[in-house]
Amino acid sequence: MTSNTAESETQLFEPATLKSFRADLKRWYRKAGRELPWRLTADPYRIWLSEIMLQQTTVAAVIPYYERFLDRFPDVMALAVAEEAEVLRLWEGLGYYSRARNIHKTARIVAEERNGEFPRSAAELHELPGIGRYTAGAIASFAYDLPAPILEANTQRLYARLLAYDRPLQSTVAQKTLWGFAEQLVPKRDPGLFNQALMELGGQICKPADPLCDACPVSRHCRAFEQQRQQEIPHPKKKIELTDVVHLCVAVKQDDRFLVRQYSPEERWAGLWDFLRWEQNDFPILKRSRSRKSGELFTDHDLFPQEFARAEQLLRERYQLQAEIQDLALTIKHGVTRYRITLLCLVAEFDVNLNDDQPGDQQWVTREQLKELPLSKTGRQFANHLLNQ
DNA sequence: GACACGTGGGC
DNA sequence: TGCCCAAGTGT
After folding, report:
1. If you measure CA to C1', which residue is closest to nucleotide B11?
2. Per residue in A43-52, pLDDT tens?
């Protein structure tokens, strides 16, 4: 069989290949697999929580969140009776906050409609909020040892290389082919262990750049390796253009309280709180920066004197902020989907007449309340900056 | 089917 | 520094 086969002709594995592939992979995983916290349990609640947290998120980032979350909510009933705000507070900094809202919704469904018991099939798990086909298969195989296939970033790359599948992976036909391969691969015996092993291999050996083929236990079954095309498979993704935007952020202060608002459901960071914040379409992009770690903040009027003067002018003219703007200020750079945001943060002593053009609830909160509120990443950075004054 | 959704780490 | 990537899902 040659490469560049049409979708419909993609050859999967022969039965004999399948058998030795599975044996090689399991042998390797028993020796090389990591002992991650969620691999030490078969509790569907814990498996579910870990799988949601791990969506588009690295293992290293998840571990501390996973531990804290379980300390506070040891089972699905504890989570179900919690306030959404507290769930979001525990999720703060992890990103993709719809996951936190969905995990709360699902906890309530499982608690109220299923007496605290998770569904025991991938199909039923798939119906719950935040559980797609991958996560349903992961829970079914890890918690119940059901032979459900999985396809996610690690296994997608692995399968593509095993099959020397060199077309773009996002198309419907590609996904159909790879899911079909996953179905073929998953064994009836120890499917949970096997699925873990597939992901471990994809993550630790079959890496995106410079895969460790010399250390790979299944390289003899890999068509990309056979053809020495592991560097060009999978097909590279089309790159996404970033747009620079400037946001103005104002911590309005009165006595010992700060004005905050909650993002409404249609907005990014829905459900989280922040200081007042406006996107500036006509603001010059700040190019200069001080040498620093990404995401770190650096105060100053000194580095961007004209920009801060302009920011103050806009607050007065455009937003009718009749307040005394204090010298304390900082800029924060951060990225979100398709945007690179430069945030100009200012502090203003409240006077009167703030033009109220922001959606969502506004509230005055004390310093102590600010600590407990779920904030966006930059909101928390700014808040810490203020609280440490 | 394309796009939105957040953040942190590696090179 | 800039770019790529990460145990996807919902719309």
Report:
1. A209
2. 999 999 999 9
> What's the whole-number mean pLDDT along residues A171-191?
98
CA–CA separation, A208 vs A104, rounded Å? 33
Mean pLDDT score of chain A, rounded to an integer?
91
| Contact between the CB of A254 and strand B at under 7 Å | no
SS3 state of residue A279:
strand
Nearest-CA residue relative to C1' of B6: A95
Query: What was the pLDDT predicted at A349?
Result: 84
Q: Three-state SS for A9? A: helix
Phi, psi of A260 (to 5 degrees): -130, 165
Largest CA distance in chain A: 78
* Residue among A7, A9, A14, A51 flagged as catalytic: A51
**Which helix or strand (DSSP H or E) is residue A178 part of?**
helix A172-185
Q: For residues A99-104, give the mean pLDDT.
A: 98
Task: Give the CA A338 to C1' B4 distance in Å.
Answer: 9
Does position A290 have pLDDT exceeding 60, yes or no? no
Tell me the C-alpha distance between A280 and A104, whole Å.
34
Name every residue whose Cβ is closer than 8 Å to that of residue A350 and which is 6 or more positions away in sequence.
A252, A253, A254, A259, A323
Rounded Cα–Cα distance for residues A45 and A116 (Å): 10
pLDDT digit string, tens, across residues A307-344: 888 888 888 887 777 767 776 678 888 999 999 999 99
Closest CA to A25 of A230, A156, A194, A138: A194
A243-254 and A339-352: which strand pairing?
A: parallel
Q: Which domains are delineated in chain A?
A: 7-226 (1.10.340.30), 243-387 (3.90.79.10)
Q: Are A198 and A142 in contact (CB under 8 A)?
A: no
Give the C-alpha separation, A376 to A367, whole Å.
16
Q: Strand C closer than 7 Å to the CB of A239?
A: yes
Q: Which residues of A155-167 are buried (b: 16+ CB within 10 A; e: fewer)?
A: bbbbbbbbbbbbb
Q: Closest Cα to residue A218, out of A362, A24, A11?
A: A24
Separation CA A34–CA A42 (nearest Å): 16
Q: Is A68's pLDDT higher than 60? A: yes
Residue with the two structure tokens 């747009």: A243
